[in-house]
Amino acid sequence: DQQVKQNSPSLSVQEGRISILNCDYTNSMFDYFLWYKKYPAEGPTFLISISSIKDKNEDGRFTVFLNKSAKHLSLHIVPSQPGDSAVYFCAASGGNEKLTFGTGTRLTIIP
Amino acid sequence: DAGVIQSPRHEVTEMGQEVTLRCKPISGHDYLFWYRQTMMRGLELLIYFNNNVPIDDSGMPEDRFSAKMPNASFSTLKIQPSEPRDSAVYFCASSLVGQDTGELFFGEGSRLTVL
Question: Which residues of A49-85 are buried (b: 16+ CB within 10 A; e: fewer)?
Fold first, then answer.
């Protein structure tokens, strides 16, 4: 039972364009959402987060949008750079210590 | 700080053998987590500790898996006996506060292959 879903296993975007990564969740108890980035042979690193009391959080080139009614969040990267090529994991938690991750989306930025 | 340190980075073993993965969390962090990454299921939480005490092990697949944290600077994840379906990358992570509000710091992972 995958409570956090990333339905696109991969995404290719031209350098300089916007990258949009999507994530859906099923558990209405989730109230905090995070994105992690992972390079090959490294552990995931925290990128950006958003609380359910907000619908947008921005940090430089990265913006996360949350649509609670649709149980959907997205990560926007603009402009996309070659160094953004990585696997991106969406994660969610619901008032306890557990962090539930999605399966990841591999983003490739084309120079 | 050196970050979360995991060993071994790679382990190849035969079915039925015992496997022990090790983790040293970041000094001062009071939470430690063990995750497993597979293509089908992404990152799965296996177990986590708070101040060396196991809090939730509901993600541990079966009795073949066990984890310990004898002190604040060391944890092990043991699989005995190992099976081919245990092949995955196992990550250890630590944090200062509960993961739902605080950032998790991951190690580089231990890639396990069971033949």
Answer: bbebeeeeeeeeebbbbbeeeebebbbbbeebeeebb
